[in-house]
Amino acid sequence: MKFGIIGAGMIANFHAKAIAAMQGGELHSFFGRRQEAVDELIAENGGTAKGFTDLDEFLADPELEIVTIATPSGAHLEPAIAAAKAGKHVICEKPLEVTPERIDQMIAACDEAGVTLSGIFNRRFHPAMDAFKKAVDDRRFGTLTMADAQIKWFRDQAYYDSGAWRGTWDLDGGGALMNQSIHLIDQLIYLAGDVAAVSATMACLSHEGIEVEDTAAAVLEFKNGARGTIQGSTACWKGYPAEVNLSGEHGSVFLADEKFRIWDFAEEAPEDADVQSNLMLDSEGDGLGASDPSAINFTGHQRNFEDVVQAIQDGRSPAVDGTEARRAVALICAIYESARNGGKRVEL
Prior knowledge:
With 348 residues, the chain is α/β, with parallel strands linked by helices. It has helices spanning 10-21, 35-44, 55-60, 77-85, 100-113, 127-137, 157-161, 176-192, 272-278, 299-314, 322-340; strands at 2-6, 26-31, 50-52, 66-69, 89-92, 117-119, 144-152, 195-203, 215-222, 227-233, 243-248, 251-256, 259-265, 346-347.
């Protein structure tokens, strides 16, 4: 299927690399506001893609089938609705949008147009996550007791100064939680289930000139009875692997990026030998994107895109459809509501 990319920055280039590597997809075109930026993307990605600076012309191309959106977070809604109305399938970078209400508009527009909407949560698409989810689905933990996400990353001041949209509520949608920690928050609720209530606190402790938090902590009450926490920060020198940890009466698993730090169950299963041989953490390392967002590999995006193409061909919903991508945003917005109200308990 032929892909077009809306956006002309680092993430747009990242999408292009993932499309070039994937099965079932072909990089067809770019849309950006500045001709120079579009030309640079085309040159960096083989020089054969079409370039557009007019969105209507870009979307009117009859060969274009799937659009990926790589604009700032709070500028996803409008191009997504325009793409849906043009009959194009939509894959949108995280967060799908910055509020559940804006996401609901995207879902409604794609449903009305009969096109697929998918979010990008690339950290779901690797072997360790497959093994983790299987352990949950097989009920190997017994009663789940604790479920945590820890994102102790670092972004320097230059990162926030590099774009006027960064660190703003309108276009970034938040700070360390909405921009960086959302991947781990998605993994947490994908594995542990939905959250019933949160109490939270947040602050901007080490960056200047931004409206949003660079440090946040939340206490979670899950619908299944488990308790847990989220710690998210871009102010932790020098940045470390992000973790999702689950514990229950019969097992504990701690995932650090794409490898396990702990894989421990009361009863063994056939897959444990493979996990211990191939998916355990060899060393702590610096973490994928923990201090440098450009250091993140595109393999997860590639698999995310491949799932969408296969879903379209199979006539099913993709793994991260609009409703699924909405869950993490709804939780983050509840955390923000609690933090703004002195840690008041907020029910979801």
